[in-house]
Amino acid sequence: MNKSLYTKLVLVMLLLIISLMSVVGAFLMNEIRAFYLEDFYKKMKTVFETPELAEDLYSAANDSSAPSKMAGILKAYSGQLGIDSRSRNYYILSGETGAILAGSGTETASLAITPNILAAIGGNTGDVSDRSASYMDVALPFKGSSGSYIVYIKDNKSAVRELSSVLFGIIAEALLVGLIISVLLSLLLAKAMVTPIVSLTKAAERVAAGDFSSKPVSDAQDEIGVLTRTFGSMASQLEKTLDDLKKSEAMRREFVANVSHELRTPITSIRSYAETLYDSTDMPEDMEKEFLGVIVKESDRMTKIVQDLLMLSKFDAGSIEFTFERFSFEQSVRDVYNAMLLEAQKHNHSFKVEFRTPIPCIVGDRARIEQVMINMVSNAIKYTRDGGRIEITAGQKEDMVWVSVRDNGIGIPRNDVDKVFDRFYRVDKARSRESGGTGLGLSIAKEIVSRHNGRIELTSKPGKGTIITMSLPLEGPVNEG
Ligand code: ADP
């Protein structure tokens, strides 16, 4: 590609120069010839229309030595006629035969009888120009008492030819120089064009091979510069898409592994307790009850996991229905507080609710918002040692309402804070499982809140406690009305 672009450019430039010079050369040559022809006949006309000259020539024609006399008169006009004795000459010809009687030229024998001489022999002025002829001539008849004569000026065009050949030489030289310059220029141009294309091609090859490490860059404002930058941003986009795909693939694998693990744990314990029950013949009744209790508890856990997973997959598929209505957020907070009071008391927690500002009604899915609040409070209860302090506070800020649950529990290590909203993420798996957690509660909460265009944020200090805050827009998600 590289080579062919070079060759093409050089060829195009060469052809361009050659054709340009040929056209200019041909045009110039033609113009010069036309100019000479025109100039010749104009001069002849001006000179021979001079009345004194005609008069002098007529009176000389009466003289006995007419030819030499007439030649003498013409000699005096040599300058005006442009006689140079090399390419242009004057002659006195016989008016009957056209034979040379006198003249400035070297020829003394005879001249070719041209149409203009013939015309003069016939008694007329011969001043017809013929562009294609190798000469230019005029022949004027003069009849005197000593005979009839023809004044004949002939130009053999050697001066034009000389000039043409000089011009041709100049054009040829210019052509040569032009060719050299154009070859150099086209090489430069080709290089300027080819270099970025080559580097772009290399970059494209690297991208095609999956290497995104060095993307092509260009500051050039021309089309290739734009193409290079477009390609660069396309490569970045591609890289990002690939990364996202890889990440989501990794997340999918992790999720599947987590699901299987989470489901296997209760199944394993159900199975082993059931087997023990099945095999034993003389198990004490209270032990039997205890075993059956474990089986029921594990089955409930499984049911909860499956329900939570089902809900998350519905969120993912966007198939979950929300019922948006206007309701009292304050009342909801109170309801959640009341619903959780018993559980909090069971663990000897001091449990309070406080409203910082009057709280207006909001638009949202009441049941799901309460589900999120229950999750926030039940986490506070679960992850705080018995006899702790749990506070619900709520208020309004601008066009949002908020509710915070603060505990003085075990807290979350700094590195884990961002991950608690991930599916199945639990800081302490055993503790979570022990208290009936699935590791899905906060992921579901996050989905519900984001469907309301709200926010859920958590800050925590290990050993000191945790604050989790949900904020919701008063008018619910705008597009849901
Ligand atoms: P789980 O069912 O395990 O409670 P969640 O999604 O509700 O799942 O919470 C994820 C994890 O976040 C919990 O396992 C726990 O480690 C941590 N966490 C959540 N809330 C609190 C809190 N108030 N105090 C300490 N840790 C918390």
Description:
The chain folds into three domains: 5-161, PAS domain (Beta-Lactamase); 223-316, Signal transduction histidine kinase, dimerisation/phosphotransfer (DHp) domain (Helix Hairpins, Orthogonal Bundle); 322-480, Histidine kinase-like ATPase, C-terminal domain (Heat Shock Protein 90, 2-Layer Sandwich), CATH 3.30.565.10. The chain is of the alpha+beta class and 481 residues long. The protein has a five-stranded mixed sheet with strand order 6-8-9-11-10. It has helices spanning 2-48, 51-61, 66-76, 78-81, 115-121, 158-208, 223-279, 285-317, 329-346, 366-382, 429-434, 441-451; strands spanning 88-94, 100-103, 136-144, 147-155, 325-328, 350-355, 361-364, 389-397, 400-407, 455-461, 465-473.
Summarize the structure.
57% of the residues lie in helices and 16% in strands.
Assess the beta-strand content as a share of residues: 15-25%
Structural class comes to alpha+beta
The percent range for helix content is: 55-70%
Radius of gyration: 56 Å
Terminal Cα span? 60 Å
In the CATH scheme, the class of the largest domain would be: Alpha Beta
Q: Any ligands, ions or cofactors bound here, and which?
A: adenosine-5'-diphosphate
> Per CATH, what is the topology of the largest domain?
Heat Shock Protein 90
Low-confidence segments: none
| Count of discrete structural domains | 3
Architecture of the largest domain in CATH?
Answer: 2-Layer Sandwich
Mean pLDDT: 89
Let me know the number of strands: 11
Major sheet details: 5 strands, mixed
The ordered H/E elements are HHHHEEHEEHHHEHEEHEEHHEE
Name the assembly state.
Answer: single chain
- Superfamily at the CATH H level of the largest domain? Histidine kinase-like ATPase, C-terminal domain
Total DSSP helices: 12
